[in-house]
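Now read the record:
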Amino acid sequence: MQAVRWGILGASKFARQHMGPAIHAAKGAELAALATSDPAKADPFLAFCPGLAVHQGYEALLADDSIDAVYIPLPNHMHVEWTLKALAAGKHVLCEKPITLEEPEFDQLIAARDAAGKLAAEGYMIVHHPQWQRAREMVQGGAIGTLRHVTGAFSFDNRTDVDNIRNKADTGGGGLRDIGVYVFGSARYVIGAEPETVTARIDWENGIDTFADVQAQFGDVTYSAYVSIRMHPYQEMCFHGTSGVIRLTAPFNAGVFGEARIEWHKPGLEIEEFRFPADNHYVHQVEAFSASARDGVAYACPLEFSRGTQRMMDMAIVAGRSEGG
């Protein structure tokens, strides 16, 4: 099996701590290059990947014919621009979420993907984790009877990190764009449907949302979730049916927030647990992307799926602004 050779555009903290090591560890993938304007930022990458080629600037990496795929961890407002440039350079592209800031921007991404004949996708790693694959199978397979209600929560507090791009409107910051994609996209993934209506109450601070309480209707299934970048760290997703509940206790930062675990609440107040202590969803994501790029294997998170999540996010933002934000 020929390995897909990867390059990373930008030496971000997330790339250094999570995606760089994941690409390096993944089967069928080879971390081969990094682009950064500051050579010192390459040192932590070279520590775990000594043979890494370091390019001075993003364009130089895109011009490297030995690179098959690029991972883009740049600030949100740069995602569309560099995804399009990478596709034009003949690279497969895995771009951090949110890959766009508004749903209509997917038109040009999908057109560019199709014209290039390459794989382009948003870095939405949770759909590659077996806990989410199991949860989807259980809910859609009737393990909790008829699904009636979904609840979600995701929060952390970064108010003191004033220079963080998540706290800046001009870099596409805010809680919804950073973590709203998880409570929205995971529900869509499990339910297998799109929301018909979305309402929201949002707290705004210097042009970014710091708390969003969102309700939605997926046919007969009701939905309620909140995200915040000004609250104590917490995360949870629950799928409540007529004869049971599926609860994920570390749905989004499995292995960091806690062990990936599904609680299956059954009739008679019985609870059965499924644990996933060894799975790294970033590694699973890279392996799935590489297989799809190399062999054309169907990919779990195509741009069309991510477009639906962005549409739901846009609906929440519009609803939150109409409530006086």
Notes: The mean pLDDT is 96. DSSP finds nine helices and 14 strands in the chain. The first helix runs from residue 13 to 25. The longest strand covers residues 230-241.
